[in-house]
């Protein structure tokens, strides 16, 4: 038994698990200045393998923090999907090509990069903005919630006992095939947390009292068990192997994403990766689960996986000299029956939904869980938002998890099936249906079809969607190229909607040469600047007027016919040290080098009359209305934001940028 | 006196001076694996101020090493130049707007970023690729050349004595105004190298024997004096101040590059920079040189500079709370009478040309000097190229320096003059002429108008320019978007022409669906693969076939109608470990997300018949001919390249990427 310790401390947020979901949560806390600890039972960061597919939406999110460029540079971009199916003679042929990302959806396209690099970018970003680090080799062993104070925002109702493991214990057992593998965390492995607890020695314990706990501790989530949650659903008998190799092959599409169905030798998915690597997902038909429902992991080796791939790919040949990583998994879809307890302990990522990795969704949906949750906890902890917004996490993300599970259920069964020999072969899978599901899945897989429902943070009822037909309520704000009025530089507009915790009002000022339109904008500014306005109410007296809610202006008049100082001061606030703010007013006009963004057309906004749009801190659209409808905007913010006088200082030491 | 030391060592290349020119040279050596030392008399890297303007061509060069993205992200992009001139009543008005970079010239546009960041990116890149570091606080004190062995490639004919300074000595004296300034290295300061030598104490000396020395030690170049070189030209009486501030102003174009001529209160140039900074270049009419030709530096303060700017900018107001840096300079243009000695000691950058900084050329032309020189020294040191190519450095770069000086002479006098009151005011400067010179200067200032003449490394005489009307002999290879045949990813084609020391053959394969065209390509490959071909001759036996000369193919057939394996093996060479090379064959076709590059049209190449292009390792065009004209290509390479058996191993420890 470990030595008990009396060491006790308090923290606003405790994050359990430092995978992509946990690091996304920590990144929010770093940006919002919320005191936070991150623990992970593993002793080291991962270096190869694991998840790798990145949705457009994930890249947009990385960009909102400022590191999408690193991903975009290092990743392999996937442009085209090639489908290979048996021809009349049973030989595989390329039957179709479709774009991997539906054109026009996003300024980013799907790409792949090893999870360890993504984690590196999160860690670098946290370091730049905060003192939050990941404490590795630390295991949570007990969690209790003091229900008597769960409504007290100053209280620390959650008590978690932590054990610091010795180095030896924190190292996951590999299967010893000479290459790194992921079998130790495959869903075919039993959970090893219990073992770690039983065998702990020479370690120490401490007690942490937290306001919020976020469990990002994977499919075997310890946190989930503490709050009595369950994953619901059953595994299938389909077992797939995953192999990362530098392939030596005469298959012509090895650098394309391929879905290959052989006549009688199973299916294969090809994912081209960075550094000449290719990931093969291949069905291991010869390995079956035993009576307990699990297959014998020791039978799965790189040789077994490549042999299966070779059969599917015949008559083409494939082999390798270098193998980077491999794993296997058993297809199954499960979703958690609860995502939180008392809105104090939350689950995210694999802790509340698991599915097959082939569609490249897992890491994305997991990160997007905590991208949804992080700002809510952060702004409540900072005293900026009403704690009732926390309930929207489960409401919003459980729907996404369910949609994911439904998609994966259909997709993975179609993928694992044998192609139909003809239209009356009912045992086989129709390749036309497969293609339809694949194409539909591609939109889903972009992460851009997520639509949050009406709630206290999505003001659908007082909105007028017709004023901005392509800025959909509850969906993420799309991006079009606009120009900065002050320096004529073109920008994807979304790039200015940083994940820094601020809500945003986008003032589509319309044709600003028009006198009436200028008067409407002036009236809007007067309303917001008036004594007692919601903007003044939610902004602390000693803070700049854009510190809680930021206003961006996008007008449609020709850039050269409007001057920067034609706009009211509120739209480009003055600072004693820095002068006027030159990064708030944008225009929909032709650029010198990158064409015309046609933003008003893209957004579906009348270029004469414009409109008002409110965005949440996560870029989701909260309100669409007339420029004059400041009353609805006021009602929206009054419903969820506390007075500026309630704000807590940022407690954590903030680093200089 | 310093203690003499017997310490002696040998090195292939000694670089004196670690500013942008020196670091560019060192970066080539890092990439080419040439043993190199870099010394700088200053004890620390610079942190603010200095040069900041970056040409399109400099960005392309950074991109060829792989770090343009860091510059592009951090820099301020300049899009538009606004000209302000007195109106009929003598009040300044915006009279014109022109694009800062001529549209279509490059995929990059001019931008500004503090020199210290550029140096950081060079240093990071050197660290990634080599063990070369900068030794600071090291002063060269004696240089001699043993003329008896200057033709012996194995000899180290240059002896340089170095003195390692104490920290105190290596710190440049600032003027003590409370902000960092650049007056200590302004051209209004006397050289302080002599002082450093005389006052040295507690230091040590060593002797270095080098094959090549590159003097990048600035306008007061010590190296230049050792080889008996002189800068020729005279200063003017015009004195300009430079001030980096965060401005507080009601001037509407403060985030544009502005050229402002007031009626009677001098001229001002505005350069908007990163981090809300703005650089002001302003004429200091009230400060005049004394009888010695130099002005009193102690009279120049930020207050003097801002006061001058305020007068020019009236009736607009400008002030600041934060000043980052300032300096002053006296306009003058001088060019060195020699650029090298025995092709063993070379001068580059300010050591062989100085001019006024306002046009943002200095850092660029200096870096481009050593970008031209570095690969030549590197490939000669490696035994890959004949040493006669070294003579092309002075031939090519002296012309560029002279063109720069001529441009700056005209531009700075026009800028410093008073605007003409009317057409008969001959004392004044015509604002129309100013605009014309400015616009012409803008093309010059892109760095893309450089054209090297026919020589052993530019095979103009056997070329047929008509086959590629926009791939100009002696100019840099332009960039158009192309797609990778293997994965459909769009790329700016130039991005593949990395600065790694390889020459390149670009095979414009034309319409590859056409049988005759395929036969021409096959014949081309047979010629190059034949026993005794120039390609086999220059490639060491144990190296891959693309290690000295790399072949890229760009065809014009529809991507989907041609297969990767339709192309001969030579065009996508096989590697035992890595399989086929998927990054050699490109196609001019529509992309899914970024339009059609129309590369054949852009390059001016017949999409049916194609052509052959040879590029030097610095992306300059060496030859244009028919696909069948391998004889001319052979002659070109035979003229400058040694047999592969002569290659020296990379001596320096190369780091793993």
Task: Describe this protein's structure.
Chains A, B: Residues 450-643 form the Phenol hydroxylase-like C-terminal dimerisation domain. Chains A, B: Keywords: FAD, Flavoprotein, Oxidoreductase. The structure is a homodimer of 657-residue chains. The first copy, chain A, is an alpha+beta fold and 657 residues long. Among the domains of chain A are: 8-76 and 108-233 and 335-413, FAD/NAD(P)-binding domain (3-Layer(bba) Sandwich), CATH 3.50.50.60; 465-646, Phenol hydroxylase, C-terminal dimerisation domain (Glutaredoxin, 3-Layer(aba) Sandwich). In chain A, 25% of the residues lie in helices and 25% in strands. The first copy, chain A, contains 14 helices and 30 strands. In chain A, a hairpin with a 5-residue loop joins β22 (481-484) and β23. In chain A, α1 (20-32) runs parallel beside α8. Chains A and B meet through β4, β13 and β27 of A and β4, β13 and β27 of B.
Summarize the model shown.
The structure is a homodimer of 657-residue chains. Chain A has 14 helices and 30 strands.
Task: Note the topology.
Two copies of one chain form a homodimer.
Chain A: E1 8-16, H1 20-32, E2 36-40, E3 53-54, H2 56-65, H3 68-74, E4 76-77, E5 80-86, E6 92-99, E7 111-112, H4 115-129, E8 134-136, E9 138-145, E10 158-164, H5 193-199, E11 204-215, H6 222-226, E12 231-232, E13 235-249, E14 257-261, E15 267-272, E16 278-283, H7 302-313, E17 318-332, E18 334-336, E19 340-341, E20 345-347, E21 353-354, H8 362-381, H9 392-416, H10 431-445, E22 481-484, E23 490-492, E24 503-510, H11 515-529, H12 534-538, E25 549-555, E26 574-575, E27 579-580, E28 585-587, H13 599-603, E29 611-615, E30 621-625, H14 630-640
Parallel strand pairs in A: 1-2, 1-11, 2-8, 5-14, 11-20, 24-25, 25-28
Antiparallel strand pairs in A: 3-7, 4-7, 5-6, 9-10, 10-11, 12-18, 13-16, 13-17, 14-15, 15-16, 18-21, 19-20, 22-23, 22-28, 24-29, 26-27, 29-30
Helix pairs in contact in A: 1-4, 1-8, 2-3, 8-9, 9-10
């Amino acid at each position: 038994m470990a030595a008990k310790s009396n060491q006790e401390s308090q923290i606003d947020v405790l994050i359990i698990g430092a995978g992509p979901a946990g690091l996304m949560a920590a990144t929010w806390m770093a940006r919002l200045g919320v005191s936070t600890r991150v623990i992970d039972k593993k002793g080291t960061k991962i270096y190869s393998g694991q998840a790798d597919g990145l949705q457009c939406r994930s890249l947009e999110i990385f960009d909102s923090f400022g590191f999408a460029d690193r991903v975009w540079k290092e990743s392999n971009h996937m442009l085209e999907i090639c489908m290979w199916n048996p021809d009349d003679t049973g030989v595989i042929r390329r039957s179709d090509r479709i774009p991997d990302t539906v054109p026009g959806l996003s300024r980013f396209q799907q790409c792949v990069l090893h999870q360890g690099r993504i984690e590196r970018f999160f860690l670098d970003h946290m370091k730049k903005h905060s003192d939050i680090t990941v404490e590795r080799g630390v295991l949570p062993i007990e969690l209790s919630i003091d229900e008597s104070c769960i409504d007290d925002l100053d209280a620390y109702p959650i008590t978690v006992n932590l054990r610091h493991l010795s180095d030896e214990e924190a190292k996951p057992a590999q299967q010893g095939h000479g290459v790194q593998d992921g079998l130790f965390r495959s869903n075919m492995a039993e959970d090893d947390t219990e073992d770690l607890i039983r065998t702990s020695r020479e370690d120490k314990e401490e007690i942490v009292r937290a306001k919020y706990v976020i469990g990002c501790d994977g499919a075997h989530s310890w946190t989930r068990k503490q709050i009595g949650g369950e994953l619901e659903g059953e595994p299938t008998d389909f077992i797939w192997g995953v192999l990362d190799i530098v392939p030596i092959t005469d298959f012509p599409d090895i650098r394309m994403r391929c879905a290959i169905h052989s006549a009688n030798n199973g299916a294969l998915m090809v994912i081209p990766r960075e550094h000449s690597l290719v990931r093969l997902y291949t069905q291991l038909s010869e390995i079956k689960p035993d009576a307990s429902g699990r297959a014998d992991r020791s039978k799965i080796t790189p040789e077994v996986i490549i042999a299966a791939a070779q059969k599917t790919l015949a008559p083409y040949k494939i082999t390798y000299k270098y193998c980077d990583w491999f794993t296997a998994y058993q297809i199954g879809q499960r979703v958690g029956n609860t995502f939180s307890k008392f809105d104090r302990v939350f689950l995210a990522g694999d802790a509340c939904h698991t599915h097959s990795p082939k569609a490249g969704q897992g890491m994305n949906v997991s990160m997007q869980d905590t991208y949804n949750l992080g700002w809510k906890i952060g702004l409540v902890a900072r005293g900026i938002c009403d704690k009732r917004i926390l309930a929207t996490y489960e409401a919003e993300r459980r729907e996404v998890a369910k949609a994911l599970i439904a998609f994966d259920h259909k997709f993975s069964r179609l993928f694992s099936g044998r192609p139909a020999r003809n239209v009356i072969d009912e045992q086989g899978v129709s390749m036309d249906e497969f293609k339809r599901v694949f194409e539909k899945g591609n939109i889903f897989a972009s992460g851009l079809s997520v639509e949050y429902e009406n709630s206290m943070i999505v003001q659908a009822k007082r909105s007028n969607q017709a004023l901005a037909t392509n800025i959909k309520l509850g969906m993420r704000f799309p991006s079009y190229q606009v120009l900065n009025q002050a320096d004529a530089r073109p920008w994807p507009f979304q790039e200015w909607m940083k994940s820094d915790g601020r809500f945003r009002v986008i003032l589509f000022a319309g044709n600003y040469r028009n006198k009436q339109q200028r008067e409407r904008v002036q009236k809007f500014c007067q309303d917001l600047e008036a004594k007692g306005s919601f903007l003044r109410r939610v902004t602390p007296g000693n803070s700049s007027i854009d510190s809680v809610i930021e206003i961006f202006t996008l007008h449609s008049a020709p850039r050269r016919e409007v001057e920067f100082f034609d706009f009211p001061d509120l739209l480009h606030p003055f600072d004693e040290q820095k002068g006027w703010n030159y990064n708030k007013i944008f225009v929909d006009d032709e650029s010198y080098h990158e064409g015309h963004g046609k933003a008003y057309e893209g957004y579906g906004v009348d270029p004469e009359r414009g409109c008002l749009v409110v965005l949440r801190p996560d870029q989701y659209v909260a309100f669409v209305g007339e420029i004059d409808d400041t009353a609805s905007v006021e009602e929206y913010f009054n419903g969820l934001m506390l007075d500026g006088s309630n704000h807590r200082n940022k407690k954590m030491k903030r680093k200089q940028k």
